[in-house]
Amino acid sequence: MEKAAGSPSVGGSCPQKNAEILSSQYGINLFLAGLLLTFAWAVHAVGISKSHLLSYLITLMLIQLLWMLWYLCRSCTQRRLIRDKDTHAGARWLKCGITLFAVITLILDSFKIGYYIDFSNCLSPTEGIFPVTHAVHTILQVYFLWCHAKDIIQSFKTLERFGVIHSVFTNLLLWTNGVLTESKHQLNEHKERLITLGFGNITIVLDDHAPQCNCTTTTLCSIFSQGIYYLYPFNIEYHILASTMLYVLWKNIGRKVEHHQQHKTPFKFHGITVGMIFGLIVLTSTIAIVVVYLIQIGRSKIKSELALTMFYLHAIFVLALMCTAGIVALLIYRLEDRSLDNSKNPARKLDAELLVGTAAGSWLLSWGSILAIICAQAHPKYTWYNLPYSVLVIIEKYIQNLFIIESIHREQEKVNDDIKTLRIVTISRGSTLSLTPSYKEIYNGRAAHDSGEVPCLFKGSICGRENGGGGSKEETSQENSSVMHSASDFSFYSRNSVTNNKRRVLKNIAAFLFLCNLSLWIPPAFGCRPEYDNGLEEIVFGFEPWIIVVNLAMPFSIFYRMHSAASLFEVNCKT
């Protein structure tokens, strides 16, 4: 362990590389052990109960809590030390997002505590200890990420690597546990719908983990049990966001950074009205579609087919709009000549890898649907809508990934410092001088050209004389020459006007895609999953194999939409 905070960064040295490898292997083994324990509980393995899984997760959370407390205490004692920060990591909007998900996760934990109290006679004590520990873990972890997500750790690097990677895989295991619990609930609902619709050719056994005793308060039990599953999507997003932020912190340990000024890019609603309006229309219509779908699906065969048809038509329309918007944005990028920022940036690299990696979940489901449509012997009418839907899902992610990755790698446009500090003096009717609007108004194309005022721009100088008196012919000649020279600078305004228009279009596209991705996150997150209810894939591939594929791919597909929305928010701020 290196104790000297001021020691040089040796991120590429042999001891630190070994520490990185050892800590990553520790985290992977931690995760695999928990993953197998989760799988054993899911398949009702002999000798493995839910209490064993929860005990393992509780232990991991307690270890992380101890490490975070130690790190926070050490940070308080060394508060006066100047520390390096990664300005790209832990953006404020990302912290606000994870805080929102954490608050809903705390509500979920309170529901679990209430559920345990009502069924305390037949539930293991670990089911009561787990939500309490998880709530404490959530509060401290959010505080830790708010205060230290940008840190570049240069002391106790070996120990910190193990602490951070432990936190990363603890959150991944909690994410896996949430995904599995929510997927089992969705699968049970799907099986109940199949029973209602009379599918006799599929062996249906409900995977019931319900307590084997009566509830003390029936009404409260119903509220808690139903409410828990509606809150799980937010809990799932919370843990995956926390794990990504902690992973960036782990990658930054011992890293050398170049000290340069980071320009703040706040989010502004100005100039994105069109994109916001169309995006809100898509969001509102999607919520309405999901409500109708959940009401109609499983009621009868006709109502289920109508619900599926309605979902596919709406999704096809939205995906087509998103493809068009993405293509327009990429064409604008092709018309611009701006270099890409290829500097080392762990946060940006992780964003790009997550976009492509998690998109594979949707691509897997889409190709499964396409093969099912091609190979199936019978094709109900509504299944044909699944073909363009699946093709558009693949194409839309191709285009959107390219747009986002190029956007986050593009260098921000820099404005000449001489122009920024310039104040324009114009000549109006002879030698009378008047001060025109500042550069900001000129740059945004809002300078007044009336009353015979002619702006004059040239490097590092001010056109005209500030004393306002009469002058020699030589001075007058120089002034006239400067005014004539300024005519060529009007091309600057025209070019700037075109640039502003392009930027405005790109911001509207980013805002529209941001709301569209939020809209497409809602249906699968809250149980609107035609991959379950379509039926064609289950006939072609078999019920159990297709359900396994859906349960493996769906969490990545859901995360892709939320991660894309977060990335597009950043693109909107940066553009």
Automatic annotation (TrEMBL):
InterPro entries: Otopetrin (IPR004878). It is found in: Cell membrane. It is a multi-pass membrane protein. Keywords: Cell membrane, Hydrogen ion transport, Ion channel, Ion transport, Membrane, Transmembrane, Transmembrane helix, Transport. PANTHER family: PROTON CHANNEL OTOP, PROTON CHANNEL OTOP1. It comes from Eudyptes sclateri (Erect-crested penguin). Belongs to the otopetrin family. GO terms for biological process: inner ear morphogenesis. GO terms for cellular component: plasma membrane. This is Proton channel OTOP1. The chain crosses the membrane at residues 26-47, 53-72, 93-117, 129-146, 229-250, 271-295, 311-333, 354-379, 505-527, 539-560. GO terms for molecular function: proton channel activity. Pfam families: Otopetrin (PF03189).
